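Collaborator request log, item 7. Partner lab (contact: R.S.) asked for a structural prediction of AraC-type DNA-binding protein to inform their binding assays.
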Amino acid sequence: MMRQLDELRTLLARHARPDWTTAIDGVLISKVERSLPPSPSMSGTVLAVIAQGAKRLSLGDRVYEYHAGQYLVASVDLPVTGHFVDASAERPALGFGLVLRPDDIAELLLGAGPGEVPAAAPPGIAVSDAPDELLDAVLRLVRLLETPRDRAVLAPLVIREILWRLVTGEQGGLVRQLGLPDSGLRHVDRAVRWIRDNYAEPFKVEDVARLAGMSVSAFHRNFQTVTAMSPIQFQKRIRLHQARLLLATDPGDIAGVGARVGYDSPSQFSREYRRAFGAPPSQHAGRLEAALP
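Returned to partner:
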């Protein structure tokens, strides 16, 4: 494993771009040279492998930390807060990412069979030690960044191998659910997408459960398991994440930002924003405005 990680670090450092993209569609490389305070983002549906350093994510009341030689799977696009730990210019945090597409996993399962699939939806994020076979496939995929002639033909084959290693690995049940259209995870994902797209609007949990194709009790149980939040808490988190983004572009209209993300009460918006981010929106907006050119 150490030899694999050493070569992977060298390649990731060489091919890292500021926007994290690469010449292979769906493959991402992160290189972070300083540790910043935790910041909110959406997880995406992704496999993430750490080659150097560590990253810490929080989702609801759950905290995930993964280090060199470990991988994280996010099977639903979730509002997380995270940061790289102990990163520096001398020893940057280096990571590999692969976007997980349900259609690709579904196609793989058609040939291999669904295998063991949990009856209930699993947590939407999981961390495991990366087996040598997975690291080897990741390394071969990153090597293709150096051989454009081979890339178009071989990259899809190696990506398929990586997906197979995930499907047959420790988090296989979670990854399989991502590829099965009628799994508990996909039902919750439909609800997550609806809330994310309509975050500023009030809703009844019964209506979203119906949209997800689940009974209210099953929906509550599975949604909490996947997201570590209730549907209402999830909506609140999405609203506050969006408010933070809006404040970056419109720092002078705090009340307007609160109303745009669905808050009728400015005081409630300020209180919940402070609770989520450690400072009221007025203080945060002031810092953002001072940083603008």
